[in-house]
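step: validate -> pass
step: tokenize input -> pass
step: predict -> running
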Amino acid sequence: MLEKTAPSSGEGADVALVARNLQFSYSPSFSFWPGRVQGFHAIKDISLELKPGETLGLVGESGCGKSTLASLLCGDREPTSGEIALFGKSFKSLMKPSRRGLAKHLQVISQDTLGALDPRRSVGHQMLETLAIHGIGHPSSRLDRAAETFKAVSLPVSALEKFPHQLSGGQRQRVAIARALVVEPKILLCDEPVSALDVSVQAQVLNLLLDLQRARGLSLLFISHDVRVVRHVSHRVAIMEAGEIVETGPTEEVFANPAHPYTAKLLSAVPRGRRGKVRQATAVLETL
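step: predict -> pass
step: emit ->
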């Protein structure tokens, strides 16, 4: 069974990420019917906190607004209203004069590694480019830094010469993790990072993320529709439905005694006793 190291706590502990009263509406679309044009409220008054060294799982069905919330928390979109801060610094201050200040605190690991990596350049070139953009290290030392980061995610140094299409899905996800880590952020926003991987590879990547968290004191915001995975990796969990967080608390408490009907509905939808992939997935994750 997975051992989750307790995050730092106490009165003096800082908050890694805090969001207060976030709201986001998509612009209204055109309609032939007068009076029926209205925007879509994707995020409705969401507040959350992520502590240093903690994994906060955000779980909900597809279309509930998880990825929209992620885009707000990483600065891709600006909220309609509300505030976000990292380690006590506001997003606005971190994003001036550019987003590089934000990127040094928070990095994103997404599901679509082929979309996140440039198919025309080797992954080593992309690692060096990331270091150059952020002005990290002397040009002569950047290749060594990239190689060390590849070793940290259990990739051979020779993989630096590969192009994305020459790597497996699990290897590409490790490259994405390495590219995020090379700028030494304190927060990783993981948006469905293992949902496109085979079950056994999922377990390997989850193990890697948790090992890196312990070694580097990372805070993880882990977004997924997979209740089983979120339960195994998260210290706390937030349940999201239709753009709102309807329940939050310590993972085992929430899943053992759900207070909101939607949480109970999510848990009841997890297949139990079905042969094949679900049973195999449970067995693999329980070995973590």
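step: describe -> The mean pLDDT is 86.
step: cleanup -> pass
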